[in-house]
Amino acid sequence: MHDESANVEQARQSHEKQNKQRNYPKYKRGEGHRGDFKGEYKQKNNVEKLKPFEFGRKDKVLKSSEKGFTGHSDSWFDEDRFNKPKVKATFDKANEHDYYFNSYSSHHIHEEMLKDTHRTLSYMNAIEGNKEDFKDKVVLDIGCGTGILSIFAARAGAKHVYAIDNAEIALFAREIIKDNGLSDKITVFKGKVEEVEFPFKEGEIDIIISEWMGYFLLYESMLDCVLWARDKYLNK
Length: 236
Fold this sequence. Notes:
The protein is α/β, with parallel strands linked by helices and 236 residues long.
């Protein structure tokens, strides 16, 4: 019996020694069974710190140049201005257009394009980042939409920008440009570039800007209008 007890104790000690060498996680008595370690782990060498969460690149968000609300809240809003009609333009005549111009006579498609920050910031950087090319130049914006490219050109120092769009969004472009205080720098025409009578003559346009690219680049077939205007109005 004595030899048998000694053998059992020797086996137990050998088993504990092997467990220590294998570095099994330890847990409290009565917690966890059949390999389900729900106990208190005491691993000291394998502690991994959580990395700070990355919220993404800051350049994906359009930066505002506005100062925001300052001072007392009583001065934040002008009641008289607030009570004035916000927008005089409407899309009431959108259905009078064909499918193409009708599709651009709504807010949805223009909202989608403006929220494409890579697109919008690329145009802004290309125009406002080259002010020496736009300074005192006469610019024609074909298919102006909301007038965003015209605004960039005006801020880059253009002498005057003539914007044109045949869709009903041209009416809203006038309101947007007026609200941005650029009515003296940008004139919006509603119609087709081949049909509108402009106040400038042939060869008097220094720069033509246009986002003529549609889905799969050529879907809208707008490039023909840009090339036509180039041949007639661009200062060669």
